[in-house]
Amino acid sequence: MTVTRGLEGVVATTSSISSIIDDTLTYVGYDIDDLAKNASFEEVIYLLWHRKLPNAEQLAELKQQLSENAALPPEVIEHFNMYPIQKVHPMAALRSAVSLLGLYDDEADVMDTEVNYRKAIRLQAKMPAIVTTFARVRKGLEPIAPKQDLSYAANFLYMLTGKEPEKIAVEAIDKALVLHADHELNASTFTARVCVATLSDIYSGVTAAIGALKGPLHGGANEAVMKMLTEIGTIENVEPYIHGKLENKEKIMGFGHRVYRKGDPRAKHLKEMSKKLTELTGEPHWYDMSVKIESIVTGEKKLPPNVDFFSASVYHSLGVDHDLMTPIFAVSRVSGWLAHILEQYENNRLIRPRAEYTGPGMQKYIPIEQRG
Ligand SMILES: CC(=O)SCCNC(=O)CCNC(=O)[C@H](O)C(C)(C)COP(=O)(O)OP(=O)(O)OC[C@H]1O[C@@H](n2cnc3c(N)ncnc32)[C@H](O)[C@@H]1OP(=O)(O)O
Ligand SMILES: O=C([O-])CC(=O)C(=O)O
Q1: Rounded to the nearest whole angstrom, what is the distance from the C-alpha of residue 164 to the centroid of ligand 2?
Q2: ipTM, 2 decimals?
Q3: Which of 90, 147, 326, 352 is 20 to 30 A from residue 312's alpha carbon, by CA?
Q4: What domain count does the chain have?
Q5: Pocket test for ligand 1, best of 255, 303, 337 (most atoms within 8 A of CB)
Q6: Domain for residue 20, yes or no?
Q7: How far is the CA of 143 from the centre of ligand 1 (A)?
């Protein structure tokens, strides 16, 4: 048996959703740079789910479906009061809430292409309300119902703050959602596909994927980057802090990638946004510190920043609580998970690799009274 640890380089499926070839990321053949500049998140959802950009009518229909389905069932809102919400990480709350949503969807276990598409809309639509309701309830604030006439990104900010968001904030969130929407067979997407390849339901697949995204080696890295920036505190402290970590063989969060070698094409967009937003908020030190960290880590370890590195200072500048950074990633990535889940159902085969056994050889059962 040949063991490929971490399945590095293993091609486990075909997919027509997104590709990473020679450090270029495309969604259905559209370069991420093109989409980041021009597309709205709703257009990207449509693209990932239908493999084509929507025309005006199709986009309007999707937007309407998303806003009609954006509100949470009262049972899901109430459940946030049923556990020690102050101690719970929002990713754990999101994971549980998505699982709970499945209990209130009469079609949760219906395996039919059209029904699965309807479930995808319902789930995508509700993700912002889950995150923002949790964020408000834990502060003792009333949840805010979604507004029908707002875009997906604007509604997220509106439900979070209760105020009509500024244009620049909406544009920043919208672009971040576009940039995070899909990424070939990353760990959380693979998790979703493994789960539904048993012909389990969409809610189970997305619940499992949220669990995988939560870890700091994957989506959880953006929150870890902000924690690092906060610990560093000043530009003068960057060098001793980063050198200390590298000397201790500790990882610098937000750097490195399993697939990209020269660099993550999404990072430059977030870097640009970080510069602009940190200047606007009068806190340019977050950007300056990030750039200095980047120059040390790329210089000494040859590791470029990934999507999570500059997104930390972007979200911080938008006033987002630091532990909501990974949930925002999930609000975007659920579009990719759902595209992959639907693709998996279309041409399913159980995903079941092998393990090379390294435990003891054949042993004979020993009755408990004879064991040492
Ligand atoms: C959305 C996303 O998921 S993007 C990734 C987000 N995750 C992070 O930012 C966490 C930090 N980065 C990492 O842990 C890794 O680079 C990963 C998990 C992204 C990729 O991991 P892998 O492909 O398995 O690489 P692996 O962890 O084996 O690292 C290879 C070598 O580079 C080093 N390395 C990799 N990333 C880093 C880092 N961020 N800081 C310092 N060294 C690093 C490792 O220590 C290892 O060195 P060694 O060969 O001397 O032991
Ligand atoms: O592809 C990966 O391994 C991780 C990543 O960048 C993502 O999921 O966006």
Answers
A1: 32
A2: 0.99
A3: 147
A4: 2
A5: 255
A6: yes
A7: 38
